[in-house]
């Protein structure tokens, strides 16, 4: 959508599988109020098939954000059309209109030259597009102790007010910040695509706390917001219901072959240029399918991830604070001699998810867990940590046969040392936990995928140049995370959006 936005004055056809949510009433209002008063709340909170309780039966970690009945369309699978087999990798693939970012945490961070060290582009190449996107989608935040990591940003809306737990954490942190920063631990506010001022008819955030149950909170940016604006232009056409399988060269352009989701018919679309952004994994699949290549292994990058639950000791037993934003409000960065690589995390208060999402993680009896749920959850925060990733031979995807994609990922590092350091560092701030409560989900759970057809990696069979032109067909440019040669710990999406705009602007 970012690339289409850049090309909004030209003739653009957007092909998309484009799944949309089930036809159910949208949520209007504040989730806490609705849970007290709406007799129909089961429809969107639990779902007719109890989708929201799926974690109770599953031994795997289930994404809290992707299971509610108005959200599960985001990862609805199309196994008959795009079969996938994995080993030690939990893929979250989206065929939805607006993709995975329908449900994203809305954290939008700028890469700096350090993050881009292995890229053939520099922060200066992306900066104008970050600025344009900031104006277009609206980002709230502030320039604080994290400026060395994100740059000094102009055009931000004021930051969201803190909820109780994150507010207490930040105040305690500020009292000890000098000492902490000397130890290589930095904390600052998130930059969020959540409006605090009205923008282009979209309202400011009103603490509705619905984002765990719907993708339609207008103050939180999703790509569908850009799509709706693009569709007001006669030169932009959007065709949902088409699965792109491959592209082929043709005189003066490119031929794109797609299948209709409804009846399986095949159709060829012709274009001067193809900008391919189907998510890093599906883009890699389409590239391999285009060359009927069942031999080549493409690299796969994914941020290793951990979740550290902390309890705000002062507020154990307090009532749930229903104000504030339910997503990540603070960023934690580990960088310094004690950390061999830069690590980034987001600190969340667990306000609006269902109690059952956490209940079974507590270690006591049913009755004990009930008491813990009631008294601890309102005082809980979770730090989601992301580690960087680099290409390794054992982490790859390939076509297992003409249709089936196979992904193999080996977790090549042992996690836990950084978590222990942070647990010790945060205890004096009044935030406590036990190392045994830290969760280390399987690879794939970061939902940050990249690196399948990287820019500048001329040693690989499939790669792109710095303008993201595919080496084996320069009419095809890749505009998602597939082109990242490395994956920093910093969430990637804002950068893949800025890069998509940069690539689109370069079209002749
Ligand atoms: C719960 C959650 C929280 C997240 N939080 C953050 C965050 O805070 N910050 C951050 O930076 N990132 C976050 N992310 C990750 C972010 O959502 C992804 O990085 C981003 O959506 C990737 O965008 P993309 O367009 O490359 O791919 P996708 O979002 O996967 O979109 C792919 C698009 O291509 C279409 N498509 C796929 N295959 C085909 C095909 N063969 N033919 C036609 N169309 C096709 C799909 O319909 C979809 O529209 C989060 C993700 C989730 C799920």
List the SSEs and their pairings.
Elements: H1 2-6, E1 12-16, H2 31-37, H3 41-45, E2 84-87, H4 123-137, H5 147-150, H6 164-175, H7 177-182, E3 185-189, H8 223-230, E4 236-240, E5 242-250, E6 253-260, E7 266-271, E8 274-276, H9 280-290, E9 298-299, E10 301-302, E11 305-312, E12 328-336, E13 339-349, H10 356-359, H11 366-376, E14 380-386, E15 396-399, E16 405-408, H12 417-426, E17 431-432, E18 449-450, E19 469-470, E20 473-478, H13 493-505
Parallel strand pairs: 1-4, 2-16, 8-20
Antiparallel strand pairs: 3-12, 5-6, 6-7, 9-15, 10-18, 11-14, 11-17, 12-13, 13-14, 15-16, 19-20
The chain binds flavin-adenine dinucleotide.
Give me some keywords for this one.
single chain; 508 residues; alpha+beta; FAD/NAD(P)-binding domain; six-stranded antiparallel sheet; four-stranded mixed sheet; 20% strand
């Amino acid at each position: 959508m970012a690339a289409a936005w850049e090309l909004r004055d030209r003739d653009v056809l957007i092909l998309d599988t484009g799944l949309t949510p089930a036809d159910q009433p949208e949520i209007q209002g504040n989730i806490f109020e609705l849970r007290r008063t709406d007799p129909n709340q089961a429809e969107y909170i639990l779902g007719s098939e109890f989708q929201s309780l799926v974690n109770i039966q599953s031994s795997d970690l289930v994404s809290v954000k992707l299971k509610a009945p108005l959200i599960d369309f985001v990862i609805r699978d199309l196994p008959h059309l795009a079969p996938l087999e994995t080993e030690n990798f939990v893929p979250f693939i989206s065929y939805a209109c607006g993709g995975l970012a329908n449900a994203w945490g809305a954290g939008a961070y700028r890469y700096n030259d350090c993050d881009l060290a292995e890229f053939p582009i520099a922060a200066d190449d992306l900066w104008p597009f970050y600025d344009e996107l900031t104006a277009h989608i609206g980002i709230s935040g502030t320039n604080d102790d994290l400026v060395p990591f994100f740059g000094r940003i102009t055009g931000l809306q004021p930051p969201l007010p803190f909820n109780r737990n994150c507010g207490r954490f930040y105040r305690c942190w500020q009292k000890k910040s000098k000492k902490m920063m000397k130890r290589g631990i930095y904390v600052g506010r998130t930059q969020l695509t959540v409006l605090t001022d009205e923008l282009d008819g979209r309202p400011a955030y009103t603490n509705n706390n619905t984002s765990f149950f719907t993708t339609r909170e207008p103050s939180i940016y999703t790509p569908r917001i850009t799509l709706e604006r693009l569709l007001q232009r006669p030169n932009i056409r959007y065709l949902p219901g088409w699965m792109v399988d491959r592209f082929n060269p043709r005189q003066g352009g490119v031929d794109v072959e797609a299948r209709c989701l409804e009846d399986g018919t095949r159709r060829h679309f012709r274009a001067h240029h193809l900008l391919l952004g189907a998510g890093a994994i599906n883009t890699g699949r389409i590239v391999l399918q285009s060359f009927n290549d069942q031999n080549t292994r493409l690299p796969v990058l994914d941020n290793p991830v951990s979740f550290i639950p902390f309890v705000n000791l002062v507020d154990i037993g307090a009532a749930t604070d229903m104000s504030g934003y339910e997503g990540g409000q603070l960023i934690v960065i580990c960088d310094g001699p004690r950390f061999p690589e830069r690590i980034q995390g987001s600190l969340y208060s667990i306000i609006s998810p269902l109690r059952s999402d956490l209940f079974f993680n507590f270690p006591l009896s049913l009755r004990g867990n009930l008491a813990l749920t009631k008294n601890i959850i309102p005082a809980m925060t979770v730090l989601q940590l992301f580690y960087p990733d680099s290409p390794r031979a054992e982490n790859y995807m390939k076509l297992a046969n003409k249709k089936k994609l196979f992904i193999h990922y080996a977790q090549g590092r042992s996690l836990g040392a950084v978590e222990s350091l942070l647990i010790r560092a945060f205890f004096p701030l009044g935030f406590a936990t036990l190392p045994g409560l830290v969760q280390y989900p399987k690879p794939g759970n970061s939902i940050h995928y990249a690196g399948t057809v990287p820019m500048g990696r001329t040693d690989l069979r499939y790669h792109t140049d710095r303008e993201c032109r595919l080496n084996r067909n320069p009419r095809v440019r890749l505009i998602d995370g597939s082109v990242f040669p490395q994956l920093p710990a910093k969430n990637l999406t804002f950068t893949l959006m800025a890069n998509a705009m940069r690539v689109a602007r370069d079209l002749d």
